[in-house]
Amino acid sequence: MAMVCANALAVARRSSPPLFFALPPPLPTPFSSLRRRYGPQFPRLAVYSDKTSTMNYSAAADSVDVKEAANSLDIRVGRILKAWRHEEADTLYVEEVDVGEAEPRIICSGIVQHVPLSVLQDRSVIVLANLKPRNMRGVKSCGMLLAASDASHENVELLKPPESAIPGERVWFGSSDEKDTLPDAATPNQASVQKKKIWELVQPHLRTDESCVAALDATHTMRTSSGVVVSESLKNANIS
């Protein structure tokens, strides 16, 4: 009797349906569908992408008014009172320059290889006056003489104001009637720090034209109240 019951139980187990069914494995959800449902997985990377940063920097650069920046430079007519070779640097001249102040400025210029010393004596020049003073081999230089140079930098000529221009007179870019609308010149601190180096911004836009006249972007002439600023012979030359 016991044997019959055991056989019947075994048959029942084989024929009865299982109490638990195995579920099939879940289908993988594509990452793109998750992104559509929940947004980007790394939103900060999306916000600060290289493309976005480049666009922002480009927009900021486009908003700069180069002419306005150029006219905030303190560029003046100067007259060299005395010039001599720097005692500690073979490539430098030292000049005493009248720029309309109580005392002449001392300026160092690296033009020994291009301009004879005799040419500098009692010469009218164009001076960038609101640069921060620099110590140049023991001499404190308070400004820079502006010059034109060709692409090879082998030929260099100091920019020349009209003979009747007065030392200390402000130089500007534009038409003759814009003199009265010039902004105040930036101080040396503003020119180098607060205004993010105005000279470095403006200088690549300065050249002489086909008539050797100095200009900004070939449109805005560099001038004094007595007339335009020129290079003696260099056409389409860089100015620095």
TrEMBL record:
Q: Does the keyword Methyltransferase apply?
A: no
Q: Which GO terms describe its molecular function?
A: tRNA binding
Pfam families the UniProt entry points to: tRNA_bind (PF01588)
What range(s) does the TRNA-binding domain occupy?
Answer: 69-172
Q: Which PROSITE patterns match?
A: TRBD
Swiss-Prot/TrEMBL keywords: RNA-binding, tRNA-binding
Q: Does the keyword Lipoprotein apply?
A: no
InterPro entries associated with the record: NA-bd_OB-fold (IPR012340), tRNA-bd_dom (IPR002547), Tyrosine-tRNA_ligase_regulator (IPR051270)
User: What is the protein name for this chain?
Assistant: tRNA-binding domain-containing protein
